Amino acid sequence: MNQSSVPATDSGTAETPVPSRDTDGTAAADTKEPVRELTTWELPQNHRKDARLKPRGLERQSWIARPAEAFTSKSLRNRLIGGIHSWRDYPPSLRLWFWLIPALTAVLAGVLRFVRLEVPHSLVFDETYYVKDAYSYLVSGYERSWPAKANDSFNAGNPDVLLNSPEYVVHPPVGKWMIAFGMWLFGADNPLGWRFGAALIGTLTVFLVSLIALKLFRSHTLGLVAGVLLAVDGHHLVLSRTSLLDIFLAFWILAAFGALLLDRDDGRRRLASRLAVQAAASPGGVPSPLQLLSGPWLGMRWWRLVAGLCLGLAVGTKWSALSFVAVFGLMTVFWDMSARRIAGIRSWASAAIIKDGIAAFFTLVPVACATYVATWTGWFLSKDAYYRQWAATNPSPGWDWLPNPIRSLAHYHLEAYKFHQGLSSDHPYESSPWTWLVMGRPTSFYYQAPKQGTSGCVVETCSSAILPVGNPVVWWGGTIALVILLFWWAGRRDWRAGAILAGVAAGYLPWFMYPERTMFVFYAVSFEPFLVLALTYVLGLALGRSNDPPWRRRSGLYVVGLVVMLAVIATAFFYPVLTAEVISYQDWRMRMWMPSWI
Predict the structure, then answer these.
(1) Which of 25, 141, 277, 525 is 20–30 Å from 299 (CA)?
(2) Do the beta carbons of residue 125 and residue 234 sit within 8 Å?
(3) Do you find a cis peptide bond into 120, omega within 30 degrees of 0?
(4) Which residues have C-beta within 8 Å of that of residue 482, sequence separation ≥ 6?
(5) Which of 474, 458, 389, 435 lies closest to 594, judged by CA?
(6) Parallel, antiparallel, or unpaired for β 446-448 and 27-28?
């Protein structure tokens, strides 16, 4: 695997500004002093052979070009994107594996998530809220109240006991509609219907993370590693087998990140193409100073539109996605700044803000907002949903120009925000964000103690549990990897390290702003794919470059294989307490590595 995003080839340069390494990890083409590198044919005759055999310094960099070629489309694309632009640029023998590897990891994930999905045959943990809300969506399009002991009726296969009064809920509709999809397919009277949506989305998340790893690292090996590590992680596995909202949140966030990666390449292709057209029309094959002052407009960025749609659906699942909207929006503008700098634009920072940043804001934010509002369609179409008629009985001087449904929805959101801000009730399994990365306090979703002769228990005392404990190899290794990425981003200025760190920061750091709030470790599933990518990045460093000596590559491959094997073994060990298998109490205790896990 070539860890560099730009494959190294030999090329000479003469009297051209020497590109420096940019924060984007590729080459930047605007230094103050032009530096002249002697080309091979300019060296004395008796030195030419040695120069060809031992190219030095910048002559080995593929992003160096002669002045007459510096602004051709090929040269610009090579500097901005590198040699591989899409899966079609792989050799024919490898193109199939570009899609087959993510598919194979998704199959592994699907087996782990769908087998025994109906166990336990009862609502577990917060399924008591979200599954019943999803059924209410199927019936009415909004949340309705339930009678006492509704769980008993639901568990018995009789969900049709809804009351006519609306229910007050504090989470948006998208995740509950996705749960309702499985119930629409398989019925609301069985656990397969309750959990199908979560298992499907968890499997697709594994497929996505493998594709994104292939895009980031340009390595089939690392694409496989990323997919397998997420597929076997116990934390992600449990969240994919229970119908909570967080697995849907993680999926839409990762989909938005993938769309922005595609937009990054698409924007750079447009920049290269439009600059090349300007250069071809100018004397000397170089754009005019005025054209190089800010560079061209890049037009409509369709992948940003897709990212905005995904982010709107993420916020429509849980409001905690708002931090990703902010971080991803800034990230894509920084990418554009770097692209314009690499291309040779003089005022690259201001140009990126004016020509890319403003457009990015008006692409991402309005689309995300419109998508979010559209997710409340069922509420708008109803007549008696909670707060639906609030505006009709509560005039607001100065705001009466707004339609009543909009004012009612705004009031609903204000009340929900107050609820979240004041959520500080004690819970036996609450955990501080300080403990999340080391899985200090996993949330117990389910625990039963069957007696001998019941539920498959063949010893005196048994246990059946669902504990979303993360794979120690993935989480503890990923935590160490984050530290390495931080240094690698600061020292090597690799844009991929920065992008992964941005994903973790957006999902993790905001929780430290609310130390009094009741929080749970399963919130961390929103940034877990980025933690897996961080570990994969570091394993890529261990694997080495494609042009390293064979012994170095073999050693790196052994390290990567050992880490993946240990992760698989760890999942096999913890699997009984991830999926409610009936085991002896002693076997259950053996898997509780920390007192805080009990």
Answers:
(1) 25
(2) no
(3) yes
(4) 437, 501, 504, 531, 534
(5) 435
(6) unpaired
Written as tens digits, the pLDDT of the chain (598 aa) is: 444 333 333 233 333 333 333 434 333 333 333 333 323 323 333 433 443 444 444 444 555 666 667 788 888 888 888 776 666 777 777 788 889 999 999 999 999 999 999 999 999 999 999 999 999 999 999 999 999 989 999 999 999 999 999 999 999 999 999 999 999 999 999 999 999 999 999 999 999 999 999 999 999 999 999 999 999 999 999 999 999 999 999 999 999 999 999 999 999 999 999 999 998 888 888 888 899 999 999 999 999 999 999 999 999 999 999 999 999 999 999 999 999 999 989 999 999 999 999 999 999 999 999 999 999 999 999 999 999 999 998 888 878 888 999 999 999 999 998 888 777 788 899 999 999 999 999 999 999 999 888 878 999 899 999 999 999 999 999 999 999 999 999 988 899 999 999 999 999 999 999 888 889 999 999 999 999 999 999 999 999 988 889 999 999 999 999 999 999 999 999 999 999 999 999 999 999 999 999 8
- Residues whose CB falls within 8 Å of the CB of residue 141, separated by 6 or more in sequence, listed in order: 377, 378, 379, 381, 382
* Structure token digits, residue 232: 């076997």
Give me 512's structure tokens: 């430290």
Distance from C-alpha of 431 to C-alpha of 129, rounded to nearest angstrom: 21
On the 0-12 / 13-18 / 19+ scale of CB atoms within 10 A, 510 is middle
Distance of alpha carbon 197 from alpha carbon 486, whole angstroms: 35
Which pair of tokens denotes residue 364? 């991402």
- Joined tokens for residue 378: 């069922």
Strand partners, 446: 466
Please answer whether residues 582 and 455 qualify as being in contact, where contact means their C-beta atoms are separated by less than 8 angstroms.
Answer: yes
Torsions phi, psi for 325 (to 5 deg): -60, -45
Q: Compute CA 414 distance to the chain's CA centroid, rounded to the nearest angstrom.
A: 28
**225, two tokens:** 């590693």
Q: SS3 for 162?
A: coil
Query: Cβ atoms within 10 A of the Cβ of 426, count?
Result: 6
Distance CA 167, CA 424 (A): 21
Beta carbons within 10 angstroms of residue 559's beta carbon:
15
Interatomic CA distance for residues 467 and 446, integer angstroms? 7
Annotate 500-563 with DSSP letters as a single string: HHHHHHHHHGGGGG-TTS---GGGGGGTHHHHHHHHHHHHHHHH--TTS-HHHHHHHHHHHHHH
Give me the numbers of helices (H) and strands (E) for the chain, helices first please. Answer: 23, 5
CA distance 71 to 22: 18
Nearest alpha-carbon partner for 269 in 418, 85, 135, 42: 85
Nearest to 230 by CA among 532, 503, 523, 437: 532
Amino acid letter, residue 265 = D
Alpha-carbon distance of 112 to 568, in angstroms, equals: 12
